[in-house]
Write a structure and sequence with these properties.
The complex is a heterotrimer of chains A (344), B (511) and C (170).
Chain A lengths: L12 H18 L16 E5 L6 H17 L3 E5 L6 H10 L6 E6 H10 L9 E8 L1 E8 L7 H10 L2 E5 L5 H13 L3 E5 L3 H9 L5 E5 L1 H4 L5 E6 L16 H5 L7 E3 L1 E6 H6 L1 H14 L3 H8 L8 E4 L1 H17 L1 H5 L4
Helix pairs in contact in A: 2-11, 2-12, 4-13
Chain B lengths: L6 H12 L2 H16 L5 H7 L1 H6 L2 H18 L1 H7 L11 H9 L3 H25 L1 H4 L2 H4 L2 H18 L4 H15 L25 H17 L8 H7 L5 H12 L1 H16 L5 H14 L12 H25 L5 H12 L8 H4 L1 H4 L1 H16 L4 H4 L7 H17 L5 H19 L4 H24 L11 H30 L7
Helix pairs in contact in B: 1-22, 2-5, 2-22, 3-19, 5-18, 5-19, 5-22, 6-7, 6-8, 7-8, 7-18, 8-15, 8-16, 8-18, 8-22, 11-12, 11-17, 11-26, 11-27, 12-26, 13-24, 13-25, 13-26, 16-17, 16-18, 17-18, 24-25
Chain C lengths: L1 H8 L3 E2 L5 H16 L5 H30 L3 E2 L3 H4 L5 H38 L5 H22 L8 H7 L3
Parallel strand pairs in C: 1-2
Helix pairs in contact in C: 2-3, 5-6
The chains are: A alpha/beta (344), B mainly alpha (511), C mainly alpha (170).
Amino acid sequence: MNYDNEFDPGLSRRDILKGSMAVAGAAAATSFPFSNAFAAGFPDRNLKVYVPTREGGGADRLLRSITGVWKNKLGVNFEPSFFPGAAGRVGYEKYMGLAKDDMYELLFGNMGPEVLNWVVKKPTFDLSTFQYFAQVDSDPGIIFVSRRSKFKTIDDLVAEGKKRTLNVGVSRLAHPATLGALALGKHTGAKFNPIPLSGGKNTRAGVATGEMDFGALPSGGIVNRAKSFKVLLMFSHKNPLPGRSENAPTMNDHFKTNMPSLIAGSRAFGIKKSAKAKHPDRFKKLDDTLKTVFTDPAFKKAYAKTKSPWEFVGYRSAAQAKEYADNIARIGAEFKELLSGKKS
Amino acid sequence: MELDYDLAFFGEMFARTFSFWWVILPSIFLGLIVGAIPGFSAANTIIILLPLTLAMDPETGLMFMVGLYASSRMGAGIPAILVNIPGTAGAAATPLDGYPMTKQGRGQQALAMSFVASIAGGLLTTVIALVSLPWLSQIAFYLHSVEMIVIMFFGISLIATIAAKDTLKGLIAGFFGLMIGFIGTDVVYETPRGTFGFLELYDKVPLIPALVGLFAISEAFAIIENQSILTERGKAAMAKPGWAATFEGARIAASRWWHITWNSLIGLVIGVVPGAGAAIASFVAYQQSKTYSKTPELYGTGHIEGLIAPESANNGVTSGTLVPLLVIGIPGGATAAIMLVVLQFHGVTVGPDLFLTSPELAFGPFTAMAVTYTLMILTVLPLARYMSNITVVSTVYMAPIIISFTLVGSFVPRAYLFDMNLALVFGVIGYVARKTGYHVAAILIGVILGPLMETYFLRAMKMSQGDIMVLFSSNIGNTLWVLLVVSMALPYIMDHRRGKSEKIAANDPYG
Amino acid sequence: MAENADAQRAKPKSIGSELIIPVAALFFTLYYFYTIIDAPWTAQVAAFIVGSILILLVVLILIKSVRSLGTGEGTLDFSNLVKPKAYVPKRLSLLALTIAYIFIVPSLGFTITTFLFLSLAMLILSDWRKKRFIISLSATLSLGGYLLFIVAFKTRFPAGPFETFMKGFL
């Protein structure tokens, strides 16, 4: 499957099919069995992307909008394959097991929840042989309530949490937004009981129907439902969406803490370290061209269709991605007992 | 929420919706096809056709999706009745009485009954949903985890109902299914359990491969010993083609209007609760129908109410899932969730305001559903006669076709080859179960409801921090518990009373 | 169920095959328990309740079976499973073909594998009669399946030589 503007309503379906088939045919015809040693000839065939979530989800949409522009800069297409399951575990293990280290095969994951996965339960592969090389979005974790809730500010909520244990709906326990809620409870002394509801959709339902006292999720799915939900607190250094979140305070500002950003949506491209070591020139070409995607107006236009806030996207380097992943892993380790139900 | 109920407005809405017949008609036929093939569903078809759906304007796209959704629900019942293979989990209770009818050569009649029950149930609940939106949407605020646990028990108690002939075997099959349903990580701490080391099983046993294996593959292996799936009497009955059976089926179904009403309302209420769904609704409906029936012993032999109950219930779910979607922006099911994505893509924000800002989009899904069901009376009902002809195809051709096409179906939802192997494993389990008197439907009920019940149970326990009394902490929940006990005890009480009267009356072997 | 009724009429009852499901359920439950021995309580509670009841039910049916063996009402044979015997070769061939289908489909692709499976299976089941009809029926069905599943619905079924070849024309 190719991402040839499948989301552009201006094209008819027939045009789209024809276009993608033609490109695929041409690419197949010109593919060459020998790997070119110079980045100048790279890439000469389509790039394969392993996505550890399901087709049609948020990662899929973001990837479509990025590769839709990136492919023009590389001259080849991207072929995503989706391996949903076991909270990303299937996708990572498939990638580590199957992908060749010729720089033609990448992984596109969501760092936060996936790094926490490994904290809770060790992966079957050696983590040190893998790295993220570019983070492409950052959607902060938030605390939110239903519009019907009696809590109007974060202080109301914390005050009640000191009187009784509040149930907080979360997507999963091993999730950056959950860590945020736990850290908030730890800092303020309020008692929060995280209830994993398997996914953002169920979490929003749990909060909307009043079964949960409040929720902790990435902000993206909440700020665009401002009629149903109210954001009370953000776990980032500054509020990236003051206008769309009624200027919700950040945890660090409001509670004078010094927490690293708990970015809940943190999609990033990953690669086997061996591929980077073998083909530094190819790696550089991929990384350099990816950077230019984010300044391309065509990308902004494509991204607008995903309805996610533009403020979240942007290129962050391998070093920044690593710093973020390390932070999350560290805070995760701090709450390991709560996340895994086992004494460590 | 304030809604302006104005008859003229609704008249206008229906007229407007009818003008989209050119979208709705194709979507009906597409829906029938994807509903009938296990592995395909309205949800994944809409995903596949996203480029097409997104290219339409929101209103046209909505008509298309709703038409597809409603007709796929009906499509799923067709193979369930004709070849004992439910097209989706929502039709898992349909073959219990639908397939025995087919074997007796009453396939056409059974299809007609199922179509009428589906259409009437769907139409009725759509209209009810439309006029009672503000109240219905409140149901989700009252049915929480605790209440859902009891509703799950209504579904699970169907195992005992099915097991009536050989209780011990039936219970073993059902509990084996529940254990299989527990495969995968637990919903709280994500500890992998009973996965045999397969990552592909971490997210529980995927339903479609289980359904394909238990019903389709095992059926294919079983039927080859007979030339046809029909009994000798059935063959004779099929030799007289004509429209009579369709009319007769429709007439019989229409005469059970009260049954259709009651069961489609069960579907509507369960559909409104986010996360519940057609499978639960049809199990609960079947169980309820049998419990309050005067002739419970006829269920499973090709009994009319046993077919009508699940089919009217699962079509009631269809309109139910739209209620929370449009009123509070929370989809009631997978298909509704995808509709939400499409609406958002067009910049439509779903919620109470939608009814004021763009009523054509807010009420549109309901009028579209009503129009879809109306059009199906004319387009789908006449097809029963021709569809039922599939039952005269020799098993020499039928068995290989069933195997290859349902294996594809088991692959489709996740695109894992692993799932085809899984379908084969379930096929072997299903074959052994059939051959040795264990009910495959009992196993499947366990596989479907086990993980759901565990999820609600753990959620309730985690919320109460381990206090088991939470199960009896709500008034609605307690009322449901009482109803559950009554519905479990009632058959025995009735049996007892009937036993007394039967001693007096002459005994008719057929009931 | 008809099969069940047949089985019950036959005397003495062949109960060997009727124990396959309970014994499989027992072993699976024990394996499942083994995997959750030191898991958190959330992973255990539902499975321990249901599993214990299942073990109890299996023990009951085993006791019942041993009794009927003792009284001579039942025998420990597996004939139920393979009855009628005449169909054993066909059934085994169909099983072998199904397994082959799953293993071959990744390399030969949907269309060719389906064609081979359908034609071979139908030929075996029909005792190699109506060859021409079966071959053309299989060809039509596999091409129809190709158009429906791969061209129209774009399922990500593994592509084989046929699908790759056709891609050039579309």
